[in-house]
Write a structure and sequence with these properties.
mainly alpha, elongated, 50S ribosomal protein L29, 2 helices
């Protein structure tokens, strides 16, 4: 894999992370509207969102 292909793969990874982060946040908003913030699903989504936010932060630091 050459450098251009690697950069394209990182760009796609960054896009995928941000898309998943949006989906998780939207699902959490739905659960919040249903007053289900104490559900196991909400707690799992919260953990996933935290991880995705950290990955996104690190990607953004590096200009991706």
């Amino acid at each position: 894999m050459n450098n251009q292909e690697r950069l394209a793969a990182f760009d796609q990874f960054a896009e995928d992370v941000r898309h998943e982060l949006d989906e998780v946040s939207h699902r959490m908003e739905q659960l919040r509207a249903e007053n289900r913030v104490k559900s196991a699903t909400y707690k799992q989504l919260f953990a996933i969102r935290s991880t995705l936010k950290e990955i996104d932060r690190r990607l953004a630091e590096r200009g991706l």
